[in-house]
């Protein structure tokens, strides 16, 4: 259900043209690339590849900027402010339905599993996901993990109608959990977990149920670009994906070097903490059974359909995009070059 669907995914998105020869670095204009957030450990795949000359060797002069949330990155890509971005693909379902002329496409699915999670502390007394019924869950209004909670509740057997939601600003969510103002929160595991550690919570006291490991197995963040930009720049897109995969292999092999590469770009970057965040990202969202079997970036149509369906339900989208209009394997190198782990 993965690689043999390559032709379907490419044809449906109108990107089935043969790839021209890669441009030389001298002929390549700087490529504008926007991350999803401030520099974190998993971003080392791009930073180290840039420092080692991988992007330049593949004809790309990379300009990488931090992001301010996946939703913001999605909007900036659509506006043309950036050529390629790294963003959570769930943000694209509603956006693509409302903006078909600025449709975004996932060209390399980096996180094979979403980091969206239900997270609590042992003192709450919640020992399984069903235990949040009747409890106070905190999350910002409109936050992705909160919007997907009803779908997670269905597969996890949670009585969602009994949950009492408390809304707050994103920067207060984890503090309110630590202070006991809410019983649990929804959010990205890699963010909330280490925020709680930073607030003095003991790691043994943090309890989390990632959606993808508990019945709602959908994709996370990916390298994405506008469909019309891809039609005009297929060789650049392929070169970027090839460079990113090489960067992921470097990050897996040399995490300390990758953290140092990120530190060069942000003096306040905490190398020790981010190396741990990277390890969690690697183990929970990158080196999954699907990736080990089919290589990084392989798309399973059924899982992609589930992602589109649950996001359409969450956001009231009546005209959801088709899988082939939102995902493509067209720009991936052969499976033999995508084996990791």
TrEMBL record:
Catalytic reaction annotation: N(6)-(pyridoxal phosphate)-L-lysyl-[4-amino-5-hydroxymethyl-2-methylpyrimidine phosphate synthase] + L-histidyl-[4-amino-5-hydroxymethyl-2-methylpyrimidine phosphate synthase] + 2 Fe(3+) + 4 H2O = L-lysyl-[4-amino-5-hydroxymethyl-2-methylpyrimidine phosphate synthase] + (2S)-2-amino-5-hydroxy-4-oxopentanoyl-[4-amino-5-hydroxymethyl-2-methylpyrimidine phosphate synthase] + 4-amino-2-methyl-5-(phosphooxymethyl)pyrimidine + 3-oxopropanoate + 2 Fe(2+) + 2 H(+)
Annotated SsuA/THI5-like domain residues: 41-258
Cited Pfam families: NMT1
Signal peptide (UniProt feature, chain positions): 1-18
Alphabetical list of SUPFAM superfamilies matching this protein: Periplasmic binding protein-like II (SSF53850)
Domain of life: Bacteria
Keyword Iron: yes
KW Iron (keyword) present: yes
The protein's annotated pathway: Cofactor biosynthesis; thiamine diphosphate biosynthesis
Keywords: Iron, Metal-binding, Pyridoxal phosphate, Signal, Thiamine biosynthesis, Transferase
One BP annotation, GO: thiamine biosynthetic process
Molecular function in Gene Ontology: metal ion binding; transferase activity
Description of how the protein assembles with itself and partners: Homodimer.
Family: Belongs to the NMT1/THI5 family.
Functional summary from the UniProt entry: Responsible for the formation of the pyrimidine heterocycle in the thiamine biosynthesis pathway. Catalyzes the formation of hydroxymethylpyrimidine phosphate (HMP-P) from histidine and pyridoxal phosphate (PLP). The protein uses PLP and the active site histidine to form HMP-P, generating an inactive enzyme. The enzyme can only undergo a single turnover, which suggests it is a suicide enzyme.
Protein name: Thiamine pyrimidine synthase
Organism: Muricoccus pecuniae
Taxonomic placement: Bacteria, Pseudomonadati, Pseudomonadota, Alphaproteobacteria, Acetobacterales
């Amino acid at each position: 259900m993965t690689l043999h669907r390559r032709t379907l995914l490419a044809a449906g998105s109108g990107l089935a043209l043969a790839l021209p020869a890669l441009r030389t670095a001298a002929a390549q204009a700087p490529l504008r690339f926007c991350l999803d957030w401030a520099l974190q450990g998993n971003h080392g795949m791009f930073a180290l590849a840039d420092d080692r000359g991988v992007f330049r060797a593949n004809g790309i002069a990379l300009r990488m900027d931090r992001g301010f949330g996946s939703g913001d990155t999605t909007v900036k890509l659509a506006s043309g402010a950036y050529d390629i971005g790294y963003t959570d693909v769930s943000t694209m379902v509603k956006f693509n339905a409302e903006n078909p002329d600025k449709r975004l496409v996932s060209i390399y699915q980096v996180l094979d599993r979403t980091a969206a999670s239900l997270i609590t502390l042992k003192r709450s007394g919640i020992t399984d996901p069903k235990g949040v019924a009747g409890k106070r869950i905190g999350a910002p209004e409109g936050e992705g993990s909160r919007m997907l909670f009803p779908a997670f509740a269905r597969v996890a057997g949670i009585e969602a109608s009994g949950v009492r939601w408390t809304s707050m600003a994103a920067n207060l969510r984890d503090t309110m959990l630590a202070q006991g103002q809410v019983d649990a929160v929804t959010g990205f595991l890699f963010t909330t977990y280490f925020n709680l550690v930073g607030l003095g919570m003991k790691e043994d006291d943090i309890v989390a149920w990632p959606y993808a490991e508990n019945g709602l197995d959908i994709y996370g963040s990916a390298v994405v670009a506008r469909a019309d930009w891809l039609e005009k720049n297929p060789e650049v897109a392929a070169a970027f994906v090839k460079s990113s995969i090489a960067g992921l292999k470097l990050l897996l092999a040399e995490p300390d070097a990758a953290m140092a590469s990120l530190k060069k770009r942000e003096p306040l970057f905490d190398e020790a903490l981010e190396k741990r965040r990277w390890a969690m990202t690697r183990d929970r969202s990158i080196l999954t059974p699907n990736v080990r079997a089919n290589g990084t970036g392989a798309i399973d149509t059924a899982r992609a359909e589930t992602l589109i369906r649950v996001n359409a339900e969450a956001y009231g989208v009546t005209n959801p995009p088709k899988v082939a209009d939102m995902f493509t394997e067209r720009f991936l190198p052969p499976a033999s070059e995508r084996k990791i782990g």
